[in-house]
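I wish you would study the pair of lines that follows with an eye to the fold:

===
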Amino acid sequence: MNDIRFYVLTGGPCGGKTSSLVFVVEKLRNFGFKVFTIPEVSTELFTNGVEVGCEGISNIDFQEQQFLKQMEQENRYLELAKRHKGDKKIIVCDRGIMDGRAYIDPDIFDAMIIRLGFIKPELRDQRYDGVFHLVTAADGAEEFYTLANNKERKEKTPEEALNVDRKTQQAWNGHPHWRAIDNSTDFEGKKHRLLQKLCRRIGIPAPLEIERKYLLRSIELGSLQAQLGIPYVKIDIEQTYLKTDTDGIRRIRARGQDGACIYYYEEKKMVRPGVRIETGRIINAAEYSFLLADESDEAGVTIKKDRYCFPWRNQYFELDIFHEPLRHKGLTLLEIELTDEHDKVELPPFLDVAADVTSDDRYSNYALARKE
């Protein structure tokens, strides 16, 4: 959203969101940022007398009113942030627009936002620069699951909390910068891992992108969800590399879903195999068309692929199936972006991995876009 960075802190019930928000805001302010925080809308509404069911309003009506209040609140904070001096400004939301999708039938939620004049890719991908999911204590730290820190919490058992956690992950599935922070350490470690992921996204000290890439054998995506219960989001991607006078890489990307597109301009510089510095920004359709027509690298072609995004055991995978250029038709690659070079990757057992090609330059998007 403009030049002010906008982040969402979300997660399952009793994931440590409230304490973590206080922790990261203090640290970011110590780094010299002006930080604005937006409180959780649903808790505010419930605390101040709004009821769902019985003599209250229906859940569908509640979700719509919550959506409208969230939009107004975020827009108002954004306007206030613009009027503050300085250029190091960040907004951190205690939950975001898409969280409501976890508490209602997703199809009803999607229809609601269309009726209100919005489209999902803009609300999810363009509006927020990063989404950080704190996994519920009911997943890996069950002894710490409690209702004491939030009297308005509706999930009374760890099983209910785990179900909502999974639905919340799916609500944000498809965002290009979604990260999960699990319970593999104690809570102090969890807060520090959140801060680390957030700092990497902001660019403190440098926006390092650490990837692992795997070549897959054939896969049948059409029946994946039905057979294995794995929810995924399909994104259409077109990617073109631009002329450059440096030893870095410039590219533009169209990222489409449900008939809508978000356009990106990106620059990348390799630090060492698998680790690179990346900067980028969202551009409009006119700028995208201009760059495509006037600055495309004549030695390359446009890549077209379907991207399937899905969470697996608190990891976020992106599976690409290529359509163009024709010589790569059917090529299937799996990627995961890490926070630390030493992070352990647990590959989904239902995928047939042929090889780790992280360090194989032949499978970089840049190489795949070269003309024969």
About this structure: The chain has two domains: 5-205, 209-368. The mean pLDDT is 88. The radius of gyration is 21 Å.
